[in-house]
Design goal:
Shape: elongated
Radius of gyration: 22 Å
CATH topology of the largest domain: Rossmann fold
CATH superfamily of the largest domain: NAD(P)-binding Rossmann-like Domain
Helix content: 40-55%
CATH class of the largest domain: Alpha Beta
Strand order of the largest sheet: 3-2-1-4-5-6-7-8
Strand content: 5-15%
CATH architecture of the largest domain: 3-Layer(aba) Sandwich
Order of helices and strands: EHEHEHEHEHEEHEHHHHHH
């Protein structure tokens, strides 16, 4: 068994994000046994065939969350944010001292977790993004007041099964969500608009989609493969006095820097509203 094998993990509420993390753990081969809970048997059955996974439905076993939490060294909380406090109160008496509890619920503070779980339970707050579904996530990770370096390293290893991890103080988690959390949507919007431009130049929708999607995918692969700065790769495409230079000039005149700053500021303001219950 690999030295970096993960200890027993429980994922309480294995929805889209919890399910993606589950798939990452299984695919990595590092799982030391994972128990997942869902409300319905239909959802639970869909995960029951995975290697090393015990999938339980709350409708058939109402105490499954507590049982799963009691048997795990790391507990991921993946239910909807409004459900988190009740779930924490349910599992708190069942947690063994030192069990690491990790939030993947947006907007719920570490203070809320620590206030309900009490001393002896280290807490971390995470913010993965949707490319976790294909093992390419960026996950922000913030440690609570009693989480040790070993706790952080363990949770980091868990999230690295679905991508890259960035450690930040909790005060930066909402700001991170406006960049990597919402970021895929910004990319898709750019793709939508460039596709419209292609259709406007006479290409069939299928042709336009192929050109745009594969251009974005190829550009991202090239960036990753070379390790170059995006600005340098842009310069290499932009021949002096050429067609790309003319197009880039128009885009720069649109003050994209200010637009992205304004957009991410708006997202951050909304994150603060949600955290305040707005």
């Amino acid at each position: 068994m690999p030295a970096d094998t993960l200890p027993p993990v429980a994922i309480l509420g294995a929805g889209s994000m919890g399910g993606a993390i589950l798939q990452g753990i299984v695919a990595s081969g590092l799982g030391g046994g994972v128990t997942v809970t869902n409300r319905t048997a239909a959802k639970a059955d869909g995960l029951s065939g995975l290697d090393g996974v015990t999938s339980v439905a709350l409708e058939s076993d109402p105490g499954a969350n507590g049982d799963a939490a009691a048997s795990a060294d790391v507990v991921l909380i993946g239910v909807k944010p409004v459900m988190v406090p009740d779930l924490l109160r349910e599992i708190a008496p069942r947690l063994r001292p030192g069990t690491v509890v990790v939030s993947i619920a947006a907007g719920v503070t570490i203070a809320t977790f620590e206030g309900i779980l009490g001393e002896g339970i280290p807490v971390l707050r995470s913010m993965p993004n949707t490319p976790a579904l294909v093992g390419r996530a960026v996950t922000g990770l913030a440690a609570g007041s009693t989480a040790s370096a070993d706790d952080v390293a363990l949770v980091r290893r868990l999230f690295e099964t679905v991508g890259t991890v960035v450690e930040v103080p909790e005060a930066q988690i909402d700001a991170l969500s406006t960049i990597s959390g919402s970021g895929p949507a910004y990319v898709y919007l750019l793709m939508e608009e460039l596709t419209k431009a292609a259709i406007g130049k006479g290409f069939a929708p299928s042709e336009a989609r192929t050109m745009v999607e594969q251009t974005f995918i190829g550009a991202a692969y090239l960036l990753e493969a070379t390790g170059e700065d995006p600005a340098e790769l842009r310069r290499r495409v932009t021949s002096p006095k050429g067609t790309t230079e003319r197009a880039i000039a128009v885009l720069q005149e649109a003050t994209l820097d200010a637009v992205f700053a304004k957009a991410t500021d708006a997202a951050l303001a909304r994150a603060k509203e949600l955290a305040a219950g707005g």
